[in-house]
Amino acid sequence: GTPTCILTDNGTHFTSQVTNKLFESLGVTHLYSTVYHPQTNGQIERFNATMDGKIAALCNERCTNWDEVLQFVTFNYNTSIHATTKQTPFEMMHGRQATLPFDQQHEIISLTQDPEHSRKIRTYLEKLVNEARNNIIKNQQQYKARYDLHRQD
């Protein structure tokens, strides 16, 4: 659905009247990150750096076909295990691993709405979220410990 709030940098494509009118018409609160302070938007900056490298690896020499490789790069990103969460974004979102082209396909598909199955999926997703949260906290503690090694406070 439509987000209720968007955080962007101060690039002209985000500060234009057209963008502001669009956000206003959708009822979206538009927040700006601090100028010359990329850490404010660090998560997306890291994501962009990752995607840039992957797109560049698949693009032609002049990078004119980036739009043709974007779907493959996005699928790769979403089905790769991330170091911090130790899980794939796809599984975190859908509660199951993605079916890859080379995976064996099952011929029997059940579309029943079994309440027990729904409960199991909900429990499994809660478990994934808790594991991801614990992995994120552990990762943050490691970053803090590494940072504190060089502090003289």
TrEMBL record:
Query: Entry's SUPFAM superfamilies?
Result: Ribonuclease H-like
Q: Which GO terms describe its molecular function?
A: nucleic acid binding
Q: Could you tell me which residue ranges the Integrase catalytic domain spans?
A: 1-97
UniProt-listed GO biological process terms:
DNA integration
Gene3D superfamilies recorded: Ribonuclease H-like superfamily/Ribonuclease H
- Specify the protein name: Integrase catalytic domain-containing protein
Which organism does this sequence originate in? Rotaria sordida
